[in-house]
Design a protein that fits this description.
This protein is α+β, with helices and mostly antiparallel strands and about 300 residues long. The chain has three domains: about 90 residues, Pseudouridine synthase (2-Layer Sandwich); about 140 residues, 2-Layer Sandwich (Pseudouridine synthase); about 70 residues, Roll (Archaeosine Trna-guanine Transglycosylase, Chain: A, domain 4), CATH 2.30.130.10. It contains seven helices and 19 strands. The longest helix is centred in the N-terminal third of the chain and has 12 residues. The protein is elongated and about 75 Å long. The N and C termini lie close together (about 10 Å).
Length: about 300
């Protein structure tokens, strides 16, 4: 059993618990995730099954999209609603225009300091482990990309002012490795008021979106009836890679990691260039390998990740 499962993870479940759930339902140990989603957050969590686990490292590169709620007036130790109150400020009044100005400063390439409540490793320990021990250490800022950040709705007692307790619903499209809780905290800093992330759902991870995701209940019910429609083909994880079919006679070469020649490729969708990475498919549209177009003493197609026969 091989493929990708687009899971709609509920809030309160860790990524590791989601993996354990799918292992139990599918009765297989070969299940993994492609980057964690905070237990307190809901939304898209792609899981890989069987040979799909070989795709994890490529899926980690996927861009993400979130719907997040920012609450003004209070900051916490974890930068979200689960932490202890660090700062409280009730006497402020901001205009929506001022919020727009602040948000504009976070579009594009920005630097973030990973929060202590994160899975980043420092000297062999996760930051969240150090935080549980009451420790706080220096962290190196990281560059991330915010492609877009839009206000979807504002809940405030005054229609024209942002005051204590105002909640702002944001839609954010960003690169991998972006901490939305840190983004909310930093937006507050830019506004001059404490702030924290009070709600988060991931709406997309690469090609996987929430409107096409399956809930735990749906997966369990379908699998119980022998229906595995939720198990997507492995190649769906690489939507931007050219899909190239190969001649059946060279499939055995690919199984052993041997290169094939351009004349062994059929149904090439685009002209391929040296250095390009492709998904090699059988004529029956089964994924065989990931490969790179190379030039040695001649032009070859060299597999670097083989799926066939494994």
């Amino acid at each position: 059993m091989n493929g990708i499962v687009n899971l709609l993870k509920p809030a309160g479940m860790s990524s590791h618990q989601a993996v354990a759930f799918l292992r139990r339902v599918l009765k297989t140990k070969r299940v993994g995730h492609t980057g964690t989603l905070d237990p307190g957050a809901s939304g898209v969590l792609p899981l890989v099954v069987g040979q799909g686990t070989k795709l994890s490292q490529y899926m980690l590169e996927h861009d993400k999209a979130y719907t997040a709620e920012l609450t003004l007036g209070l900051s916490t130790s974890t930068q979200d609603g689960a932490g202890e109150t660090v700062e409280l400020k009730t006497d402020f009044s901001l205009t929506p225009y001022r919020l727009g100005e602040a948000l504009a400063k976070f579009k594009g390439t920005i630097e973030q300091v990973p929060p202590m409540a994160s899975a980043v490793r420092v000297e062999g320990k996760r930051l969240y482990q150090l935080a549980r021990e009451g420790k706080s250490i220096e962290r190196t800022p990281r560059q991330v990309e915010i492609y877009s950040i839009h206000v979807e709705r504002i809940w405030s007692e005054d229609e024209y002012k942002l005051t204590f307790g105002t909640r702002v619903l944001l839609h954010i499209s960003c690169s991998k490795g972006t901490y939305i809780r840190t983004l909310c905290h930093d937006i507050g800093t830019e506004l001059g008021v404490p702030a924290h992330l009070s709600f988060l759902t991931r709406t997309a991870s690469g090609p996987f979106t929430s409107d096409q995701a399956y809930t735990l209940e749906e997966i369990e019910e379908l699998a119980g009836g022998g229906d595995y429609r939720f198990l997507l083909p492995m190649e769906t994880a690489l939507p931007d890679w050219p899909k190239v079919k190969v001649h059946p006679l060279v499939e055995e070469r690919l199984k052993h990691g041997n290169f094939i020649l351009p004349e062994h490729l059929v149904d090439v969708p685009t002209s391929l260039v040296v250095g390009e990475q492709v998904v090699l498919m059988s004529v029956d549209e089964e994924i065989l390998a990931l490969a790179e177009i190379k030039r040695t003493n001649k032009l070859i197609c060299q597999p670097f990740r083989v799926f066939a026969g494994g």
